[in-house]
Design brief:
The complex is a heterodimer of chains A (about 190) and B (about 290).
Chain A (H helix, E strand, L loop, with lengths): L12 H10 L11 H5 L10 H9 L11 H4 L5 H5 L6 H14 L9 H15 L4 H10 L11 H6 L13 H10 L8
Helix pairs in contact in A: 1-6, 7-8, 7-10
Chain B lengths: L1 E6 L9 H13 L2 E4 L9 H7 L1 H18 L3 E3 L2 H16 L1 H11 L9 E3 H9 L1 H7 L8 E4 L9 H4 L9 H8 L3 E2 L18 H17 L4 E4 L2 H9 L1 H8 L7 E3 H8 L17 H12 L1
Classes of the chains: A mainly alpha (about 190), B alpha/beta (about 290).
Chain lengths: ~190, ~290
């Protein structure tokens, strides 16, 4: 993906934030590209793991946060497993996801952050994931409303997905964790 | 009797109820006692680590701290929960700041010391293949099985420590012990797209098609898995693959615990085999043919 690196007033800002959140030293990358060769989603996105690192090294700013690979990455860890410099690319991707949301970058239509919020909401309420609830919350907020809906009757008939929300979890501890880690407060 | 704390994970109550049922049925048949931690909670799964590092590690650690009090090892059957629990231990041991933040969130200190084991490790390392072989009453003769490991069991190996990171054989060894034929195939570690299933089902369909296609081309009658995401993606997406590519795979994708259960003659319903979207009747038929010969 040809990405024009803008003249930043604050060059290297994004790299420093990524390093701070992930604990990874971006300059350790040698650009051997083993990560990109093994990556299962580079063909489904306009960028690749090694390219993301290179752009960070070159001082890319918020424009990098619009890269679709941030949300197509499946965290399969093939990159990290094969990296000769032991760069944890998954931690880098997690940091970029956090920053993309924080800096209000362009989020692809599939809206993975909404899926994350929906799932976390059910965990905060029930202490465990409630698939069906999260799915409906997500579907209500995207334009992909009808995708996969035809599967619901079969999944329900086979009891392959639970109808009722989970119960029996230690909800008090979970609520405390959400509050203490500053994620989705009680009024969120 | 071998005794463990079994952490079911959220999918055990929903999309992987079949994995949960078959794990418990097989454990019982093989003389393992599984105790569930009271009030267990979500491990954080994909959304937590994509959103907030300390939230992710704390959610997993809440369960590990409960198991610590019980003084036993934690056994996990879901590959995703296994990965998150292992990651929590790893992060807490290697980073003091994370340990502090987690102890603040939990209201108690947790030192990262609870051993986390996958159910496959228990079978191979604790029970042993010899004992498993003795327990087999219905050898799965003539069944060709592709063992699909995916990502979360094996990667990153520094964290999971599971078998071998480029050439794992735990499931293949179990398949062989059950009397079936483990096939050699090159895609056992490819990614199925995992949690992209709802947000980017097009990517999952593409990856699942490649994996299933390779298993079939290598001669497999069925694919065995140990991960709820892999099972759902490879099984449920076969209809979408047909729509997108015209390829009709029609190959059962079953949990390794269900396969073990079949060899122990545990009734189909107790193994949750009725929940599979691609019917396993074809392979069960193959097995009854084999045993009548």
């Amino acid at each position: 993906m040809p990405l024009k690196i803008g003249k930043e007033k604050n060059a290297g800002y994004l790299k420093r934030r990524v390093e701070d959140i992930s604990g990874i030293k971006i300059d350790g990358c040698l650009q051997c590209k083993k990560c990109s060769c093994g990556c299962p989603v580079t063909s489904s996105s306009s960028s690749s793991p090694s390219e993301i690192i290179k752009l960070l090294q070159l001082g890319a700013g918020d424009e990098l946060l619009n890269s679709d690979i941030i949300w197509v990455c499946a965290s399969c860890a093939t990159c990290f497993s094969r990296c000769p410099m032991k760069i944890d690319m998954m931690a880098v991707m997690d940091a970029l996801r956090i920053l993309a949301v924080e800096r209000k970058a362009v989020i692809p239509e599939a809206n993975a952050p909404l899926m994350n919020r929906a799932l976390l909401k059910t965990i905060r309420i029930f202490g465990r994931t409630y698939d069906l609830g999260a799915m409906l919350l997500y579907k209500a907020g995207t334009s992909t409303y009808w995708n996969d809906m035809e599967k619901i009757p079969t999944l329900l008939k086979k009891r392959k997905i639970a109808i009722l929300p989970p119960h029996g979890a230690d909800k008090k501890t979970v609520r405390k964790i959400f509050n203490k880690t500053n994620e989705i407060k009680d009024n969120g | 009797m071998m005794k463990y704390v079994y952490y079911p994970g959220c999918s055990a109550e929903s999309t992987a109820r079949d994995q949960y049922k078959s794990t418990l049925a097989v454990s019982r048949a093989l003389g393992m006692e599984m105790i569930e931690p009271k009030g267990w909670t979500c491990c954080g799964s994909t959304p937590a680590h994509q959103v907030n590092h300390d939230l992710a590690i704390s959610l997993a650690s809440a369960n590990l701290a409960k198991v610590k009090d019980m003084g036993l090892e934690m056994v996990v059957s879901c590959a995703a929960c296994f990965n998150r629990m292992k990651t929590a231990n790893h992060e807490i041991i290697s980073d003091a700041r994370t340990r502090d933040n987690v102890s603040d969130a939990l209201g108690r200190d947790y030192d990262g010391s609870v051993p986390v084991r996958h159910f496959l490790e228990i079978i191979i390392e604790d029970l042993g293949l010899e004992k498993l072989k003795k327990a087999v009453v219905n050898p799965l003769k003539g069944l060709k099985v592709a063992s699909y490991y995916g990502c979360l069991l094996v990667r990153p190996h520094e964290v999971t420590g599971f078998d071998d990171s480029e050439h794992p054989l735990y499931m293949d060894k179990i398949v062989g012990t059950l009397g079936a034929e483990p096939i050699d195939w090159p895609y056992k570690l490819e990614c199925c797209g995992g949690s992209l299933t709802l947000t980017r089902s097009d990517v999952v369909v593409k990856l699942a098609d490649q994996i299933i296609g390779m298993a079939k081309d290598s001669g497999a009658d069925c694919i065995v898995v140990a991960c709820p995401m892999c099972q759902l993606n490879l099984d449920m997406r076969q209809g979408d693959i047909l729509k997108a590519t015209g390829r009709q795979h029609n190959i059962p994708v079953i949990y390794i615990t269900q396969l073990i259960g079949l060899s122990l003659r545990i009734p189909k319903r107790k193994l949750g085999l009725n929940k599979l979207l691609t019917s396993p009747d074809k392979i069960i038929g193959l097995l009854s043919q084999g045993s009548s010969k």
